[in-house]
Structure formats: C-alpha cells, structure tokens
Amino acid sequence: MIAGRLTEPALSAAGEQSPARGLRRRRSISSSRRLSIRALAGAALRGGWAWTRKICGRDEAAGKAGRKAPGKMMEQRELEELKGRVLCAAVLEKAGFAIDLKESTRRAVKHRRSSDIVIVIHEGRGWFDPLSEAKGDVFSLIQHLDGVAFTEALVRAAELVGFRPAEPISQRPRTQRPIVSLAERWRARRALRPGSATWRYLRHERHLPESVLRAAIRQDRLREGPHSSVWVAHVDDGGIVTGWEERGPAWRGFSTGGAKMLFRLGAPEGLRLCVTEAAIDAMSLAAIEGLRDGSLYLSTGGGWSPATQAALQTLAARPGAKLVAATDANSQGEAYAGRLREIAEAAGCDWLRFKPPSDDWNDALREKVGEEAERRERRGGLPHARRPHQG
Q: pTM, whole model, 2 decimals?
C-alpha cells in the first residue's frame, strides 16, 4: 500500500537548506498533496478507514520522501468513483436533515433542518441551497455544511460509502420519450373545462372558486395534465410560456425542460404585485380577495431563478408599484420575503409583508370555505323564530 512507503526525510546535519533544496521541497509538497488525495480516495473505496485520516496529515512527509506523484487522470478517476458511491441525501440525513415530502418532487427532493434548506437534484448527485448561491456535488455539500477543507471532506465522504439514505418517494423506471418542444407540449394539452377531473380537483379539493378558474382560463394559464393534475403556466414579460407548475392529488413538479419565470393572474398592468410561492396559492389569494382591482397575482413556483428575479425587478420598477410579499408563513417564506424587500428597496417602490393566517394561502382558503359552510349549516338548522299560524 502507498501508506507503507511513506517515510520521514533525513535532516541535514546543519539543519539548513539551500535555495535549490527549498525549491525541490516546495515541488515535493505539491506532489505529495496529489499523492495523498489519490491514496485517500483509494483507501476509501477499499475500506481502509484505519489510516485515511493519518495520510491527510502526512502530505509533507510524503513529499520529502521524493516519491513521484501519480498522474492527474488516475487521481480524478478514483475521486469520481468515490463521489459516485456517496449520495447527497446520505450526507444530509447524517447531518440531521429530514425530507419535506410535501415540497419534494421526483427530480428535486427538499431537505429541511430547522431553517436550513437543501434541495437534492440529479438523482442524488447534486444539490443547491434555494436561499443562497451555494450548490455543487457531494464533496462541496460536506464543505458547505461542516466548514471543512476539501481533504477532510473526502474523509467524511469515505465514511459514508455503503450508507443508504431513506427513500422519499417510490420511483418508477423512466421510459424513453420522443423529444417534443415545450410549446408543442403545452398546446397539445386541453384547456381546463368545467366538469373535468382536473376541474373537480381544483374546485372540490383545492376549493378554488369558479370565478378565479374562469379568469385563469381567459388568460390561457391552465391546462389539464394527466391523472387529474393541472398545468399552470409561467410566462415571460411578452406572455410566452417558459414552463409550468404541475399539481395534482398525488403529484407535484415542474415541466421537464421548462424554466421558472412567473405565473401571472389578474391585471397585466396592475401595480399591486402579490408574490406567492405556488400558483395554487396565488389563485387562492385571488379568491380570498375577490380578484382585487389593480392587483397582479404572481407565483415563483417555489424557486428563485435569475430569470424570476429579473422579472420581479422589471415589475417593481413600474411607477407607483407596490410589492406584496405574500409568501408562506414559515422560515422559507420569510427568506423569500426578505429577498422581495431587497428588490422593492432597490427599485424604490412600496413594500408590504402579507402573511397567510395558515401555513399557505390555499390552507387559508380551505379553512375559510369550511367556516362558511359551518355557518350556513348552523343557520339552516335553527328553529323558525315565529310561531306557526293557528287555525
């Protein structure tokens, strides 16, 4: 093994080094770092945990021994093999994160730990923090969470080889589908129509009123997806569909190949800009307010892409605009509200935090509908106030 060949260098009798020897020493240290990283990755893959940590602290000793460093190609291959055997979900589970099933999709699994959020993508090989610019692979995730150097991140990744994280959602095998453009896929879907399975889902499970659904239909924002789901369009400033949110009784996601921009409902030139995290919530808020005049109800689709931010900045720059942060009543909603406040302050427009009384606006709508139904039932069950006519 490589570790057995690492030896301590012999010191000169005088204890001093010539300039040439110092140059050779610096080169050997650089070579030793490549050597130790390769040895570390190899040991991780072979299960040699007893000496993986030791080798990290012996870079200089390996360099002084004068051993030739291995090629970069071999080093990269073994690092890639280690990376391929450790999932980001394993790192997060060990760090105390839990999966948020309600907010997860098949392609993007959200993990929470208190106010910390990490979304795992690329079938567990990649990640990003929706509240910052941080993203990367499993090694950078360990560095992001633990604040350690790359070499220590390798050690911690090696310790997770063979660890199987909890599976959030049963995954069906993917089937190959013909490539169809985004616009063609949108046009191929039927517009929402009364009485359909999607209509019943929106009316009876989400309690969205007919007036709001018809307003969204008029603006061509809704399509009927498979299995009673609804497709809700995100559009750019010119009204071009860039992607769509997908919501159903047992499905939540975003269009494959689509780009999150903004869902828009209401007055196109409206100055009261109500920003939510989901299109269902935007339509729910519109229902609660009765599609308030001069209001534009918006959804970021649960993300915060550069395109989304640019679109919000354009809207906030309208003279007389007022940005309403109607995001969820939780830590993520507060983080998004903070970003909206920054946009409003930069644009010089008014800003307001409008928090739902429940976790989100659809929960608030359903509670409102339930309370109204109870009141109607109580009124209908009361005895008649007047005595019946005699004779």
A: 0.59
Residues 237 and 311 sit within 8 Å (Cβ to Cβ): yes
Rounded Cα distance, 28 and 75, in Å: 17
Give Cβ neighbours of residue 164 (< 8 Å, ≥ 6 apart): 90
Contacts of 178 (CB under 8 A, 6+ apart): none
SS (H, E, C) the chain: CHHHHCCCCCCCCCCCCCHHHHHHHHHHHHHHHHHHHHHHHHHHHHCCHHHHHHHHCCHHHHHHCCCCCCCHHHHHHHHHHHHHCCCHHHHHHHCCCEECHHHCCCCCEEEEECCEEEEEEHHHCEEECCCCCCEECHHHHHHHHHCCCHHHHHHHHHCCCCCCCCCCCCCCCCCCCCCCCHHHHHHHCCECCCCCHHHHHHHHHCCCCHHHHHHHHHCCCEEECCCCCEEEEEECCCCCEEEEEEEECCEEEECCCCCCCEEEEECCCCCEEEEECCHHHHHHHHHHHCCCCCEEEEECCCCCCHHHHHHHHHHHCCCCCEEEECCCCCHHHHHHHHHHHHHHHHHCCEEEECCCCCCCHHHHHHHHHHHHHHHHHHHHHCCCCCCCCCC
Nearest to 231 by CA among 286, 190, 284: 190
What is the pLDDT tens value at each position of the chain, 391 positions in all?
A: 333 333 333 333 334 444 445 544 444 444 444 445 555 555 555 554 433 444 444 443 444 444 444 444 446 777 888 888 899 999 999 899 998 887 787 788 899 998 889 999 888 889 998 888 889 999 999 999 999 998 888 888 888 886 777 666 444 444 555 556 888 999 999 999 999 999 999 999 999 999 999 999 999 999 999 999 999 999 999 999 999 999 999 888 899 889 999 999 999 999 999 999 999 999 999 999 999 999 999 999 988 888 999 999 999 999 999 999 999 999 889 999 999 999 999 999 999 999 999 999 999 999 999 999 888 888 875 554 455 444 4
